[in-house]
Amino acid sequence: MTLENLEAEILALPKDSQAALLSRLLKHLGRGEIDREVGSIGGEEAQRCDREMDSGEVTGIPAEQVFDKRGKELYENVIRDQVEIPENIGKIVSINVETGEYEIGEDLVVTSRKLQAKQANAIIWAERIGFDAVYAVGGTLVRTAE
After folding, report:
1. Which pLDDT score is estimated for 14?
2. pLDDT along the chain (146 residues), means of 10
3. CA Rg value for the chain
4. Burial group, residue 11, by CB count within 10 angstroms (0-12, 13-18, 19+)
5. CA distance 45 to 61
6. Whole-number Å distance between alpha carbons of 140 and 130
7. CA gap 127, 124 in Å, rounded
8. Which of 15, 34, 82, 139 could be disulfide-bonded to 78 (CB atoms 3.0-4.6 Å)?
9. Are 96 and 72 within 8 A, CB to CB?
10. Cβ atoms of 18 and 94 closer than 8 Å
């Protein structure tokens, strides 16, 4: 198999599978020589960033905002077209923001635990398919899908 053939097969996969494969490849490439080389560069970069944060030259972004943005991007750009079908409207989709893997079901806890069974420390973002929120407290959910 040529590299071009492999690339064509990968590009034919669903976007979430491509994202999961990319995550696995990046983890694999992080080992050995590449890891040591990147580690030394990364250490210098981390020290520079730390100095900039301490001096007030730059400000950080809270992790919750980063994870929320990543979850929304994954849902909108990769997952939505695959899951927003009539039989899924109103169900919960929980997404591992690191790998792009997702689970669909009736219960947020159940879908999240399925992802955590695959990766114990998974950072999970959730959406109610076809609605503007997962739950409504003191209000109503607004349907966004037709």
Report:
1. 83
2. 83 80 72 52 74 86 90 93 94 94 95 94 93 78 74
3. 19
4. exposed
5. 17
6. 14
7. 10
8. 15
9. no
10. no
Q: What are phi and psi of 98, to 5 degrees?
A: -85, -40
Query: How many CA atoms, within 13 angstroms, populate the side-chain half-sphere of residue 37?
Result: 6
CA distances from 11 to 18, 22, 25, 80, 90 (A): 7, 12, 15, 18, 30
For the record, the structure tokens of 73 come out as 């991007």
* Residues belonging to the chain: 146
* Amino acid letter for position 1: M
Per the CB < 8 A criterion, the answer to whether 112 and 126 are in contact is: yes
| Total-model pTM | 0.62
The answer for residues whose C-beta is within 8 angstroms of residue 19's C-beta and 6 or more apart is 74, 78, 99, 100
